Amino acid sequence: MKKISLTLATAGMFILGTTTASAAMIQDAPEASKGFTQVLKEQFIQGGPSFMGIVLLCLILGLAVAIERIIYLNMASTNSAKLKQQVEDALASGGVEAAKEVCRNTKGPVASIFYQGLDRVGEGLDSAEKAVVAYGGVQMGQLEKNVSWLSLFIAIAPMLGFMGTVIGMIQAFQKIAAVGNLSASLIAGDIQVALLTTVFGLITAIILQIFYNYIIAKIDSIVNDMEDSSISLIDMLAAHKK
């Protein structure tokens, strides 16, 4: 997963350099022939490299984290109903060791929790239940890993955009003070550039927020599945002990 994040971040840095390098080519293109992507790049370049580059970096890093988490969560999702049936059948036919073998051969947090509970069942149901609860917390931490960075990028991107806007407005008023009269043409360009940083900051936050909500919903689904499966495991172990 770390390799995936590093690869995505590296690709993003390459895109950032390519976007900056293509500024002159975009500006020379005829207005009628410009597509949406070209217009977007042109507006991005007009916003200035200082704040716009940082906003783009937030988008790239946020997408890298989001894609890594989505891949991890999809790999962590298992057919819990099938696993519970396999463990129950293994307990009935081959005992605890056979059930542990089933869990060893199954990927995902539910199988790992089952294995920890089965591994401690010899010490009693209370020990098995404590092991399941403790290891469930560990697995939950693994599911939520790096999600806080995604929320950080969501918060930072519009803040950077607003900061760029404020700085641009300050520069516009400084021009007015230096010239001594209010001219719309004098400050229109600076105001446009200032507002572009806010627009791109909000776009970045919106994109990352969509990914964030999907990831949180996926984590909640897996956690609920873990809790339900843990209860089923304790019931199976109690029935097996009788």
Characteristics of this structure?
87% helix, mainly alpha, 9 helices, disordered N terminus, 242 residues
Percent of residues in beta strands?
under 5%
SSE ordering: HHHHHHHHH
Structure annotation, total helices:
9
Helix content: over 70%
- Largest sheet geometry: none
**What general form does the structure show?**
rod-shaped
The overall strand count is 0
Poorly predicted sequence stretches spanning 5 or more consecutive residues:
1-9, 11-32
Which value, in Å, is the CA radius of gyration? 27 Å
- Cα end-to-end separation: 43 Å
Class by helix and strand content? mainly alpha
Query: For the residues shown, what is the average pLDDT?
Result: 79
Task: Write up this protein.
With 242 residues, the chain is mainly α. 87% of the residues lie in helices and 0% in strands. The protein contains 9 helices and no strands. Helix 1 runs antiparallel to helix 4 (49-76) and helix 4 packs antiparallel against helix 8. The chain is rod-shaped. The two termini are 43 Å apart. Mean pLDDT is 79; it is low at 1-9 and 11-32.
Summarize the structure.
The protein has helices spanning 2-21, 23-28, 36-46, 49-76, 80-104, 109-119, 125-143, 147-179, 184-241. With 242 residues, it is mainly α. The model is unreliable at 1-9 and 11-32 (pLDDT under 50).
Chain-wise SSE layout:
Layout: H1 2-21, H2 23-28, H3 36-46, H4 49-76, H5 80-104, H6 109-119, H7 125-143, H8 147-179, H9 184-241
